Amino acid sequence: MKLTFLGTAAAEGVPAVFCNCPTCRRAKERGGKEIRTRSQILIDDDMLFDFPMDTYLHMLRYKLDLSKIRHVLITHAHMDHCYPQEFCMRGGPFARELSEQNVEVLCDATVKRMFLNDTAREIRPEIAESIEVTVLRPYDAVERDGTVITALPAAHTVGEDCLVYCVERGGKAVALLNDTGILDIDVYKRLSGMGVKLDCAAFDCTYGAKRHGAGRHMGLYDIVDQTELMKKAGVLSDNAKIVATHFSHNTDLDFDGMKSAAEPHGIIVAYDGMELCV
Question: Has this prediction a pTM greater than 0.85?
Answer without folding.
Answer: yes
